[in-house]
Amino acid sequence: xxxxxxxxxxxxxxxxxxxxxxxxxxxxxxxxxxxxxxxxxxxxxxxxxxxxxxxxxxxxxxxxxxxxxxxxxxxxxxxxxxxxxxxxxxxxxxxxxxxxxxxxxxxxxxxxxxxxxxxxxxxxxxxxxxxxxxxxxxxxxxxxxxxxxxxxxxxxxxxx
Length: 160
What we know:
single chain, alpha/beta, Rossmann fold, 5-stranded parallel β-sheet, 7 helices, 5 strands
């Protein structure tokens, strides 16, 4: 659900935002960096489910094999991920607690939306205790949240 909040306490960060930052994706980097700096300036806490690491490493590897990243750029992206993950908290109650709700959120959406359900379940869980936003480049997550009647702000960043 897209409803305006003034200052979130916590932010669930989608893998595509982390990938943009770490791999320097030219169409996304500036918007990702600006939004993360905005949240950091408000002293927000960042969260992500454990699947974020596998998603990022897969995309970095794919970019390397497709020639989008050189071996040096790939190594740099992996190192950036390692540094960035120091600032991102895991789910407070663990990934296991998100499974059932993530599957409910995925619902009628296809299998490709399974990981999104985990991020949305985490944001929902956090939002029950504190103001939470989920930041992503994926407009489909906004649709999933609305269809599941989630009461949190999903911030979809634009690409250039």
